[in-house]
Design brief:
Blueprint: E1 2-3, E2 7-10, H1 16-24, E3 31-32, E4 40-43, E5 55-57, E6 61-64, H2 68-76, E7 81-84, H3 90-98, E8 119-126, E9 129-133, H4 159-169, E10 178-182, H5 188-195, E11 199-204, H6 210-213, E12 218-222, H7 230-233, E13 238-241, H8 247-260, E14 265-271, H9 278-285, E15 290-293, E16 301-306
Parallel strand pairs: 7-8, 10-11, 10-13, 11-12, 13-14
Antiparallel strand pairs: 1-6, 2-4, 2-5, 3-4, 6-9, 8-9, 14-16, 15-16
Helix pairs in contact: 2-3
The structure holds S-adenosylmethionine.
S-adenosylmethionine binds at residues 156, 158-159, 182-189, 203-206, 224-226, 242-245.
Length: 308
C-alpha cells in the first residue's frame, strides 16, 4: 500500500463542467484519472473546499495486488464500508465487490440520520492496481442517497433535497419548532417541515398549493422574502430558503439574519444562473459553523447548511 498524493474528486455527470472550472480557478488545476462518461479528478490536497464534487476521496492510497482476494482482504482489514467507482475492469471490479460487505442500497424512509461510520471509495486503474480512500466527504456510497418518495402529498419533489440536507446534518425540526420557509411555493419544503410537526411561516410571491396552505401549523405570507427584515419576522428556530435569486442577494439576507441573532440554524439553496457564482458560495462557506455542499438531489445549485 502506498500513499497517493492529493484528493480525488468524483464528478456529477451533469455538472462536470462546474467541477472542472472550480478546480481550474486560480490556476489550481487537476489531473483526470479516467475519461469518458465517468470522471475522477485528482487535485491538490490544498484544495480543501470543492463544492461541485459528488464525493471527495480524502485519504487515497494505491495497492498493487495479485489476486482479487488479496485486494478484498486489504480493504476489509481497514473498515466495513466500501463503495465502488468503476470506469474500467468491470468484470474484476464486480468480483472484488462480491467479496466486500454488501452496502445498503434500499431507499430510506425520512427522517433518517446518516451513519457515523466511514464510507470508503475504491476504483481499479488496471487489473492489478487499486486506488481507494477510507475517508470521503460523503457518508453515502458514491455520494448517492435515495429516499422513499411520497408521490401523492407534496406539490413538488424539492422536499427531497431538504430531506437529504437534514439527513446529512443528522438533525431536523422537532414538533413545535418555528420555521421560516422563504421561496416556499408551491410548498414541497413547507409540506416536509409540517410533516415533522413544525410550525411553518411560508413566504413567497406566488401562492402555496391549497393542500399545503391548509395543513395544521402552516401560515402563508405573500411577500418578497428579501424585503422582510429578520426583525419583521422575529425569532425562529430554523430559517430555510429555496428562493430563486442572484446569490449575492441571498448572502446579504443571510448576513442580516446572522447579525440579528434571531436564528442559528439555516438551510439555504444557492441557485446558480449561467456559470456558477463560486465567489458567493465561498462567502457563505466562510461563515463559522457552516458548509456548502452539492447534494445528490441538487440541480444547478449548491446548499448552504449552518448550525446543524
Ligand atoms: C424553486 S422554487 C421553491 C420550491 C419550494 N421550495 C418547494 O419545495 O416547493 C423558488 C421559489 O422562489 C420564489 N421567489 C423568487 N424570488 C422571491 C422573492 N424575492 N421572495 C420570495 N419568493 C421568491 C418563486 O416564486 C418560487 O416559488
Amino acid at each position: 500500500m502506498t500513499g497517493f498524493p492529493g484528493r480525488i474528486h468524483q464528478g456529477i455527470p451533469r455538472f462536470f463542467h462546474e467541477l472542472e472550472r472550480e478546480l481550474d480557478e486560480g490556476g489550481r488545476g487537476y489531473t483526470p484519472l479516467c475519461s469518458g462518461e465517468n470522471k475522477l479528478l485528482l487535485a491538490s490536497e490544498a484544495d480543501k473546499e470543492v463544492f461541485w464534487a459528488q464525493n471527495t476521496w480524502l485519504t487515497p492510497f494505491k495497492l498493487e495486488f495479485d489476486s482479487i482476494s488479496e485486494a478484498a482482504r486489504a480493504l476489509r482489514g481497514i473498515q466495513r464500508n466500501w463503495a465502488p467507482f468503476l470506469f474500467t475492469q468491470y468484470r474484476r471490479g464486480a468480483l472484488l465487490q462480491e467479496k466486500l460487505p454488501v452496502l445498503p442500497n434500499k431507499p430510506r424512509a425520512f427522517p433518517w440520520k446518516a451513519p457515523d461510520i466511514p464510507m470508503g471509495s475504491w476504483t481499479l486503474l488496471d487489473a492489478h492496481t487499486l486506488i481507494a480512500s477510507p475517508a470521503c466527504t460523503s457518508p453515502f456510497p458514491g455520494g448517492v442517497i435515495k429516499f422513499e418518495e411520497n408521490k401523492t402529498d407534496p406539490p413538488s419533489r424539492a422536499y427531497l433535497k431538504l430531506w437529504e440536507a437534514l439527513s446529512l446534518a443528522g438533525t431536523w425540526p422537532q414538533k413545535g419548532d418555528v420555521c421560516i420557509d422563504a421561496g416556499a411555493s408551491p410548498g414541497g419544503w413547507t409540506w416536509a417541515l409540517s410533516e415533522l410537526g413544525a410550525s411553518v411561516l411560508a413566504i413567497d410571491r406566488s401562492p402555496l398549493e391549497g393542500s399545503v396552505r391548509n395543513r395544521p401549523g402552516v401560515s402563508y405570507l405573500k411577500h418578497d422574502a428579501f424585503t422582510l427584515k429578520p426583525q419583521d419576522l422575529g425569532k425562529a428556530d430554523w430559517v430555510f430558503s429555496d428562493v430563486i435569486c442572484y446569490p449575492p442577494r441571498l448572502c446579504d439576507w443571510i448576513e442580516a439574519w446572522l447579525a440579528s441573532g434571531l436564528c442559528g440554524k439555516f438551510i439555504c439553496t444557492i441557485k446558480m444562473q449561467g456559470l456558477s457564482d463560486n465567489e458567493s458560495a465561498r462567502r457563505l462557506a466562510a461563515i463559522p459553523g457552516s458548509r456548502v455542499v452539492h447534494l445528490h438531489h441538487n440541480k444547478h445549485e449548491l446548499t448552504w447548511i449552518k448550525g446543524l
